[in-house]
Amino acid sequence: MPVPNPSPMGAFFDLTATIGGRHQHAVVTEVAASLRSLTVDGVALIQEYPVDAEPPFCAGWVLVPWPNRVADGCWTYGGESLQLDITEPENHNAMHGLLSHSAYRIARRTQGSITLTADISAQPGYPFELKTSVHYELTEDGITVTHLLKNSGTRPAPVAVGAHPFLRLGTVATDELKLFIDADTHIEVDDRQNPTGTTTGVAGTRHDLRAGQTIGTVNLDDAWADVRRDRSGGSAHYLEAPDGRQVRLHMDASFGYVQAFTTKRFPTGNGMVTAVAVEPMTAPPDAFNSGEGLRWLGPAQAWQLQWSIHFRH
Question: How far apart are the C-alpha atoms of 57 and 95, rounded to whole Å?
Answer without folding.
Answer: 12
